[in-house]
Amino acid sequence: MKRPDLDRATLLEARGVSRLYGPGKGCEAIDIRLHRGEVLGIVGESGSGKSTLLRLLAGMERPDAGQVVYHSAAAQGRDGAGHEGELDLYAIGEARRRALLRMEWGLVHQNPRDGLRLGVSAGANIGERLMALGERHYGQLRAAGQDWMGRVELDPRRIDDAPKTFSGGMQQRLQIARTLVTRPNLVFMDEPTGGLDVSVQARLLDMLRTLVRELGLSVILVTHDLAVARLLAHRLMVMRRGQVVETGLTDQILDDPQHAYTQLLVSSVLTP
Ligand SMILES: Nc1ncnc2c1ncn2[C@@H]1O[C@H](COP(=O)(O)OP(=O)(O)OP(=O)(O)O)[C@@H](O)[C@H]1O
Description:
InterPro entries: AAA+_ATPase, ABC_transporter-like_ATP-bd, ABC_transporter-like_CS, P-loop_NTPase, PhnK. The strands form two sheets. This protein has a six-stranded mixed sheet with strand order 6-7-8-3-9-10, sandwiched between helices. Strands 2-1-4-5 form a four-stranded antiparallel sheet, with helices on one face. With about 270 residues, the protein is α/β, with parallel strands linked by helices. The protein has nine helices and ten strands. Adenosine-5'-triphosphate binds near residues 44, 46, 47 and 50.
């Protein structure tokens, strides 16, 4: 995807972040800078540390060393905020971190069942995050539910149905609607099309790409699938055994990989 040059302000930074479970297992001394409106893909084979890094960046797991800094316009002048609204994620309290994830960020899990409440209606799933932001008007919550079901190509007439009656692909669409309805400043996606049939994946990917573009989303995307990375990410970071081996614009990395590991990764996936 072509990278927007509109607003290059930094949104999220990792400074020397480490979390090691054993030698080469986890993440080691990772530096990241995500700009507003940018999709950063984190790629690498299974076990390279992608999901660990996502958890560290999203405030879900404390690093052994290093800092994760969120540049929040809303944070200025509040506890834990440094200069220009810099929020040191692990210097603020747990409650505040959770509130960030609920109010300003969004998280799309690989398995939609981890991100949805399967027993309550589709509409309630979408409305819940809006309610957390203070929306109480039933008509507006319902209208937003219908609008977002349409946007993710679900039949809005199924607004009262429980997601447990939906297929896996439909549940993933609903999870995406639930996440994006609040227009999050930052979205974390962990293998968002993983675990789905290839044909379902392709349509979902197309829809995600459109939404990312239309909403100008800032995204940290974890995937082992280079085709997904190619379609969604402006920039890539290639991980191997907990370390970053290469980083750059997506087309550069996939068309002209410099590091031997990236060359292997690209050739094993992209050549027939
Ligand atoms: N909580 C944990 N305790 C111990 N070891 C862990 C823990 N979480 C991850 N690991 C190990 O750290 C390494 C990196 O795991 P991680 O899940 O981050 O990799 P990944 O690149 O996301 O792989 P996958 O795509 O298979 O999820 C693996 O060897 C894994 O077994």
